[in-house]
Design a protein that fits this description.
Chain lengths: 194, 190
């Protein structure tokens, strides 16, 4: 597969959220606004790229039997780094995302890519794969956040475009499920017509 | 009284799945049949309770005295992964019947974020050990309840014919949304 394809397959064709249905917990939990979605997406992208990089570097040194626990330790280390950095430099966003930052550890996308891609491929393509999947994830979260923010608060990235109260339910828990349901159906249509 | 408030708010008001979005993957993945949901629910109750006790002890007697709370994420996920493996091995030896019922779900539970989530929440809320256990059990019960209701509805959806693009996950998510809406009715009870 060409490098370009490795990088872009995560956006629509193999989008981790809309098509593969991985990592749904943070997807639903943090996307009350487009900005939160983007922040979470970028934090996950960093962890994905770094863990893919390290896993592909050490893949030959790890015995097959203990590979999953080793991958988890690698991932957890980078999650801790993200946690500390965000707490120090973007405390407001850190508070908003809350519990879901440490929960990047158990995001199935990260472990899934380490196991399915990075443990079998070269360093270069593993980084590209992590970047592509991460950006696909960030894209999905931003879209979901933007739709919910627009329908629920009439705003885009915090800028109010429609005055007054809108359908508040879309910012609350039920809206997350409903919007994601429609977005997955939409992705199905788009991927079919291509 | 305190315990009753913890129980009610964990099961109904702040339901792990429908309000806090933890454990969505198994919620969507294994909720096709009521019987499998029961098995999954049982395994989750078991593991969440055990994991919360062990991680609470690790936090109080290892991380805090040494002043290395920043290693919480790494320590907890390792403890949980190890615990799940151990439970699997012990169950296989001690109670093959239970292993048959829960076994397939156990490996899936390591990456169920409800387990790590509840463990971290217990620490964040400053619960003592007993409150922590009550909190863990009621959260797991809330998870099982949501899973069972959802599975029951999905069994009925199987018999209907939604529009083609909505079939499968999209319609299931919209049902989950309506279910979450229903659970919002519990807000304000305590």
């Amino acid at each position: 597969m060409s490098n370009f394809k490795t990088l872009t397959k995560g956006l629509l064709k193999e989008n981790p959220v809309f098509v593969l249905l991985l990592g749904l917990c943070p997807t639903l939990g943090v996307t009350t606004s487009a900005f939160n979605g983007l922040g979470m997406g970028l934090a996950t992208t960093f962890v994905l790229v770094m863990s893919n990089l390290v896993v592909s570097l050490v893949k030959n040194a790890i015995p097959d039997k203990v590979r999953i626990p080793s991958f988890i330790v690698i991932i957890a280390s980078f999650v801790t780094i993200v946690e500390l950095v965000m707490q120090a430099y973007v405390p407001a966003l850190f508070d908003q995302l809350g519990l879901f930052i440490p929960l990047i550890v158990v995001n199935c996308i990260v472990l899934g890519r380490a196991e399915a891609f990075a443990s079998k491929n070269s360093v270069g393509s593993s980084i590209l794969d992590g970047l592509g999947m991460g950006l696909g994830f960030a894209f999905a979260l931003t879209v979901l956040g933007a739709v919910r923010e627009f329908l629920g608060a009439g705003a885009v990235f915090g800028q109010k475009v429609i005055p007054g109260d809108l359908m508040l339910v879309f910012v609350l828990a039920p809206g997350a499920f409903i919007v994601l349901g429609y977005l997955i159906a939409l992705t199905k249509i788009i991927n079919k017509t291509k | 009284m305190e315990y009753i408030i913890i129980i009610i708010s964990a099961i109904f008001i702040n339901n792990v799945v429908l309000a806090q979005f933890l454990g969505i993957c198994p919620f969507v993945g294994v909720s096709n049949k009521i019987s499998t949901s029961l098995g999954m629910g049982g395994a989750v109750i078991f593991v969440i309770t055990l994991a919360t006790i062990v991680t609470w002890l690790v936090q109080m007697y290892l991380l805090q005295p040494l002043g290395i709370q920043f290693l919480q994420t790494i320590a907890f996920i390792l403890v949980i992964a190890g615990l799940v493996q151990m439970v699997e091995i012990i169950l296989k030896k001690v109670s093959p019947g239970l292993y048959q019922a829960l076994g397939v779900f156990l490996p899936l539970i390591t990456t169920n974020c409800a387990v790590l989530g509840v463990a971290i929440l217990t620490i964040q809320k400053d619960f003592n050990l007993i409150e922590g256990v009550v909190f863990a059990v009621s959260n797991a019960a809330g998870f099982t309840l949501a899973l069972l209701i959802f599975a029951g509805i999905r069994e009925h959806i199987e018999l209907m014919e939604p529009p083609k693009v909505m079939q499968g996950v999209p319609i299931a998510l919209i049902v989950a949304g309506i279910l979450a809406l229903a659970f919002m009715g519990f807000t304000g009870i305590v």
